[in-house]
Design brief:
37% helix, 13 helices, alpha+beta
């Protein structure tokens, strides 16, 4: 006895064709029920009369494809996938099989092999999420740069560091990776270092799209009420005339968020294949190899060919290290000293600007760890004191610039100086003076 395996559609067709052969319905009704042409229904009817139910089954079923992979080559692919690319996605694995081993196949073929070998699990359909309006890309390169940082085990277990932060800037118009850099964290100095290199290489973008992380935004309620309160990054961007746009949700800056999803899949594996385990090696690899290859594959052409990056002028170039510094205000004491981070500094006698006691100066802590003191645009001369300066006393516990507390005597109510007030008070109380 021969068993024939049929799909639900083929079974339905067989039932309709049987009714057509038995003359319970005509060809037009059968065509309408099967949503086929009358000519095709006639062909199916002839096949069933000739071969029975098997006439509805496609002739290629059960046959080997003429495009089937050779067994030896398939074994080689499986061996490579298990040994080197076991956690790669099908598309990325297919790229590496071509780049590193010269094996050329469609990514769907590699995908099916990985599914059969349980190296890849097909993704389930995502649940419907909240509706979000689509935002059109900016039209020009350099018009808006999406910027963010991502903490991840980028080097897996190949070094002693745990998570490392990857700072990334992606152009909104082209999806082009404009700059990538590994850093210890997403604090003020690493971000300043990122943008210092960026501006020297590319110039100033029109705007930067970022989130409300504490480096870029003051999140304290009372500080938000004061419009003059700025973070160090906001102050630096304002001095360079770069607009900051702050996203209210991660989905708003989706281009850089999706970029990190891609990098957390591809970049981690690229670093593993190159056996890179340090930040310095990784940054060189990013600049020389990864970024050019990534942009060639994933970037798109902008609607407008204009590059809106502006080259730094001479003044901005000269002041760039000062702009990207951590700045604090300090008040000059009467002995022309001030303190900063538990250290005391003495201003020198010779200065490029006139200094008065109680003047407020700007202390710049730069990326190279040097300290610079600025007053009205001039940098002051100073020296670091080994300890807190002693008070200059002219007498026991007396300072010449401090007035002593008042010791004035308060007269009694019946004092002649207060006689009129004292008399009126007694009169109101019906007391004779």
């Amino acid at each position: 006895m021969t068993f024939i395996t049929m799909s639900a559609q083929e079974l339905d067709r067989f039932q309709i064709i049987k009714k057509l052969i038995g003359k319970h319905i005509d060809g037009t009704e059968a065509a309408n029920l099967l949503r086929l042409s009358i000519r095709q229904v006639k062909r199916l009817k002839a096949n069933v009369i000739k071969s029975g139910p098997a006439g509805l089954i496609h002739g290629s079923r059960g046959r080997e494809s003429h495009n089937k992979i050779d067994n030896d080559e398939k074994k080689k692919i499986i061996e490579l996938l298990r040994k080197r690319y076991h956690d790669f996605g099908p598309t990325f694995a297919n790229e590496k099989l071509f780049e590193n081993h010269g094996i050329v196949h469609d990514s769907k073929t590699i995908r099916q092999i990985m599914i059969d070998e349980e190296l890849w699990k097909p993704r389930t359909k995502k649940k419907a999420s909240a509706h979000r309006a689509w935002r059109e890309r900016r039209s020009c390169y350099g018009e808006m740069i999406q910027f963010d940082g991502s903490y991840e085990h980028w080097f897996e277990n190949r070094n002693d560091t745990a998570e490392v932060c990857l700072l990334a800037g992606v152009d909104d118009a082209t999806g082009k990776l404009v700059f990538l850099k590994f850093a210890e964290h997403e604090g003020v100095f690493p971000v300043f270092g990122f943008w210092t290199e960026y501006l020297i290489r590319n110039g100033k973008p029109r705007s930067i799209y970022l989130d409300k992380f504490s480096t870029y935004n003051i999140n304290h309620r009372l500080a938000k009420e004061n419009g003059d309160t700025l973070t160090q990054f906001e102050r630096a961007a304002s001095e360079l005339k770069i607009e900051l746009i702050k996203a209210n949700s991660p989905q708003a800056k989706g281009r850089v968020e999706r970029l990190f999803e891609t990098l957390q899949d591809r970049l981690i594996k690229e670093l593993r294949l190159k056996n890179i385990s340090s930040v310095d090696e990784a940054n060189i690899f990013l600049e020389k190899t990864f970024i050019p290859k990534f942009n060639a594959k994933f970037s798109v052409e902008p609607r407008n060919k204009t590059n809106l990056h502006q080259k730094l002028n001479q003044k901005e170039s000269r002041r760039l290290q000062g702009i990207f510094s951590r700045q604090k205000e300090r008040t000059i004491l009467n002995d022309f000293t001030f303190s900063f981070k538990k250290q005391w500094y003495q201003l020198a006698k010779e200065q490029p600007a006139t200094i008065c006691k109680k003047d407020t100066v700007i202390v710049e802590e730069r990326l190279d760890k040097t300290i610079h003191i600025r007053l009205r645009g001039k940098y002051l001369n100073y020296k670091l004191l080994p300890k807190r300066p002693e008070k200059n006393q002219t007498g026991p516990n007396k300072m010449p610039w401090i007035l002593p507390a008042s010791k004035a005597h308060t007269p009694p109510p019946n004092h002649p100086w207060r006689h009129a007030f004292y008399t009126n008070s007694l009169t109101k109380q019906n007391i004779k003076v």
